[in-house]
Amino acid sequence: MRTKPVSVLLALLMFGMTVPYARADIQGDLAKVRRNYSKKDQLEENVRICERIIASDGASVAQRREAFELLYRTYERLQKGAKAQEAVRRMRGTLADDPPAVRTSILLEAELLRNRMRKPEEAVELLRGYAAAEANPADGRAEAYAKLVQILRDGGQYGAAMEAGAKAVELRGDDEFVTRCLKETQEAAYRGELWDRCAEVLVRLLKPTYTKQMDDRDRTGMRERYGEVLSKGGRHEQAVAAYRGFERDAADPQQAQRWALLTGDAHSAGGDHKAALAAYERVFTEYPGCSFHWYDAQGRIVEELIAKGEYAEALGAARILLDAAWDRTRIVEAVQQMARLLKAVDGNVARANEFIAYQRYGPAGKDGKAGTDDDPKDVLTGTAYPRQPAREEAFAAAREAAGDDVEGAQHRARTFTYSGQPEQALRHYMDAFLRAPARDFQSAGYDLIVIGARAVRGHAVGLEAFFDFVNHGPSGEDGKPGTEDDLKDPFEALLK
Amino acid sequence: MTRQLLITLASGAAWLLASAGGSLCDEPLRELAIDVPAQTDGGGGLAGLSPEQVRELRQVREALKAVILDPATPKGVLGEAVAALERVHTALADWGREGQLEWYLTAGGACRDPRIRARLLDGALSAARSRQHHSAFLHELWARLRPHVADEKGNLPREYRGYPQGLRLTTGLRVRRGVRETFSPDLSPLSIEFRRVDLSNERRLAPLKLQITGLEMERHLEPLREPMEDGD
Q: How far apart are the two ends of chain B, measured CA to CA in Å?
């Protein structure tokens, strides 16, 4: 007669024998807890499973280590800090002979003390104790030092954080770890405004061994940071040299253009306005096929000209900036800058305020009626756009190469905007709009009105009429010609 | 897509045209065409295309149209050809050319693949705009097309989700506190502040005083105390 398994289990229990817990079953149970440890309603079940594995003779050290870790994560996720701490301390006590368990427990407790329990000083003490003991494995000590960098940095102990970072990379040399650690260390130096020390760390971090561990965004960020800290530390010439090097190595024109822009910033920070202007101009002349950073460069050109006291030139450059602004925020900023400039040139606010009134209310003034006393004058009428032969020459070639799609037509338009030819720009924005398929209708139409039409008109008042016309056509919203809502084509006067 | 690629694609048209296949015809939409101002053939707008480039592009355009209407054209090639044709129209800036709208409606009606059909009807909308700098004709056509592309409940399939909002130009400005923003900047006039010179409260010009204050006098004049005895 065959004995049923249930009978065997009952018999074992009656005689006080424990049920063997097979390693395969343990593996399955661990997987179950791994899936459920963040579920509140599974807390008791997860704890029961973990405790059973921890107490089981059949569990391997690795399985018990994982059970402790999952017990910790269960409590931690459910915001039971004291229980979580107890779990990792038991892990350290129970598995004292297992170095990975000791290391994991230290790092987890430090994480808990720092994040959940808000006791960073205790976390520092714990990590320092572990990291300083030479008997502990070098890898674990390095991890502890790396964690110390973050905690000390967040606590404002920048010098100590840097020392911890240096020890971490001394103890563990794999490229991925060193890269991570150097990034944390330079951040500590940066926050502590230790510019020279930050630059030193970055010099090492920017070596190919480590840059290849980073993605493009990170790599670019670290390079920008390097130039920035050199500049902040007063080493402007070195910053310029660094940016020029990055520009030479840049993979695409948009990034190269950004390095040219930052080169200008470094010159400017060093007080060399002439060199700054030349660098900003290169953003146009060396990269005439990419307009991504043109607006920023134009804005900086205005600022440099003001810094040099060349107000007449600054006015012309500011006018281009105002033409190129493409949303309300930028339009407001460009108007403010122009007004401040007019005030600086004149020594009084009469022309500046006339300009503000014109931009705010249009040529009909606040009452909206043309021909009344409050009509402001267009004070920029006599202000010439700057002559920029080098820019114009580069743009002429770029227009030919711009292509025959919507973006190409818009790029041609931008080259005219940035060379002070708003009428030509409008023609090309219109060209982009007319060739645009239905999918590009919105974006091409928006630029046509807000950049193209606004620049020719010289102000933004009443642009709504352009939007209405584009949306409804000459017959107006009701679509019937000869009715009251018929619309006049507002582009007609501008495209003559 | 580069011109060379378009030419390469079009050169395959002869093979594709030679292949026999079943009809893809589904629903005739040609009768939905509206009256739009017919435009002449596009010459590339302000892109500066040479006469030779224009001629080549026109050849490519006709070849692509043949590929698209060929029932034997595989679906993958058909999708590419529709996209390439749209690109050629964009390059030539020939939207609204005579017969173009009818062609797109015919091709769209004949296409069973919902994504390619949507793209063809997108071309019909572009053709309907007919190089006008307003969208009146485009909306007129969309009003006619909508019932044909919507499902039984009147909902638009995924391929048309952007419509009709995508066919309207929006300012991108927000409405805040019941006031619609405009592009014209809301700025206060500048002023040069003039401060009246008023020295009446200037602390540095206050009358000089003796530095011994009442409190100090009290401290200096405290009576002396007798030393206390232990245990007191």
A: 107
Q: Which tens digits make up the pLDDT trace of A124-149?
A: 999 999 999 999 999 999 999 999 99
Sort out which chain A residues have CB atoms less than 8 A from B89's CB and list them. 437
Structural tokens at position A70: 């999952």
Count CA within 13 A, CB hemisphere, residue A254. Answer: 3
Judged by CB atoms closer than 8 Å, whether chains meet at A340 and B140 is answered as no
Q: Phi/psi at B99 (nearest 5 deg)?
A: 85, -10
| B69-88 pLDDT tens trace | 999 999 999 999 999 999 99
* Cβ–Cβ < 8 Å for A348, A414: no
Q: Which residues pair with B179 in a beta bridge?
A: B176
Q: How far apart are CA B150 and CA B143, in angstroms?
A: 11
Residues A333 and A339: their CA atoms lie apart, in Å, by 10
The pTM assigned to this predicted structure is 0.82
Q: Best residue in B3, B88, B134, B192 to probe A by mutation, most A CBs within 10 Å?
A: B134
Nearest Cα to Cα of residue A364 among A378, A351, A353: A378
So where are chain A's domains? 389-472
With a CB cutoff of 8 Å and minimum separation 6, the contacts of A138 are A171, A172
Taking a C-beta distance cutoff of 8 angstroms, is the pair B96, B36 a contact?
yes
Q: Using a CB cutoff of 8 Å and minimum separation of 24, what contacts does A344-347 make?
A: A344/A306, A344/A311, A345/A311, A345/A312, A345/A315
Task: Give the ipTM of the model, two decimals please.
Answer: 0.80
Q: Which residue has the higher pLDDT, A12 or A468?
A: A468
